[in-house]
Write a structure and sequence with these properties.
Elements: E1 4-7, H1 13-21, E2 26-30, H2 41-48, E3 56-61, H3 66-76, E4 80-83, H4 89-99, E5 102-109, H5 118-121, E6 127-132, E7 163-165, H6 173-180, E8 184-187, E9 192-194, E10 197-198, H7 200-212
The structure holds the ligand O=C(O)c1ccccc1N[C@@H]1O[C@H](COP(=O)(O)O)[C@@H](O)[C@H]1O.
Length: 213
């Protein structure tokens, strides 16, 4: 069965339409002011309404406080909230209760040891996402195009469909799926012409490749 894709950090109607036309199963809004892809919840709500019922809407957050999570829940009404910071399992449970959204928890990966907590997280999430641990000194926890060794995922089994992320592009995503066995893939900077500037042609190429993989 072919993998499904999430296109993350969408901020414009033409790039969101490219993702929907190409069959993205998930579309992501990054609500994190330090990101070049940051979008205010009110703007995201207007933009992402066209995606409702066509793809699952994901709000990407980093150690967000209750006020921001409540704003996101009430205004954007995402299907899922992606926790891309240092959130604990207790906090994830609280985010689910507070927002009514499903949970994607991101685990940063560099070595085998970074999978130590994966099984403990499973009862608390709808999906795990394995993203590259960002380089030392990076000002962002994700969206920096960093890769990890996809073979670290081969032969691992998880309770829910899981994502591989980090440094994926139209040119390497087929190999990432083959090596890792990922049922879900996530991309941000790999379908951009500059940081925060998504390219509709690269989105289409990425989704075509995932479908064929
Ligand atoms: O994209 C961002 O700016 C971002 C900011 C803060 C947390 C997460 C972010 N993006 C997520 O990181 C993955 C991997 O990015 P990339 O493909 O390596 O550029 C991305 O898919 C988002 O889920």
């Amino acid at each position: 069965m072919s993998a499904h894709a999430k296109i993350c950090g969408l901020t414009t109607p033409d790039t969101l339409d490219a993702a929907l036309r190409g069959g993205a199963a998930f579309v992501g809004a990054v609500v994190f002011p330090k990101s070049p892809r940051h979008i205010e919840p009110l703007h995201a709500a207007t933009l992402f309404e066209r995606a409702r019922g066509r793809a699952r809407i994901v709000a990407v957050t980093v150690d967000a406080d209750d006020a921001l999570l409540t704003e996101i829940a009430l205004i954007l009404k995402p299907d899922l909230i992606q926790l891309h910071g240092r959130e604990t399992r207790e906090q994830a449970e609280r985010v689910r209760m507070l927002t009514g959204a499903g949970i994607i928890k991101v685990l940063p990966i560099r070595t085998h040891e970074d999978f130590a907590e994966a099984n403990d997280w499973e009862p608390f999430v709808d999906h795990l996402m394995f993203d590259a641990r960002p380089p030392e000194g990076s000002h962002l926890p994700g969206g920096v195009g960093a890769k990890f060794d996809w073979a670290l995922l081969a032969d691992r089994a998880f309770r829910h469909p899981w994502f591989v992320a980090g440094g994926l592009t139209p040119d390497n995503v087929a190999q990432a799926i083959r090596v890792s066995g990922a049922p879900l893939v996530d991309v941000s900077s790999g379908v951009e012409s500059a940081p925060g500037v998504k390219d509709p042609a690269l989105i289409t190429a990425f989704l075509d490749t995932v479908r064929a993989a």
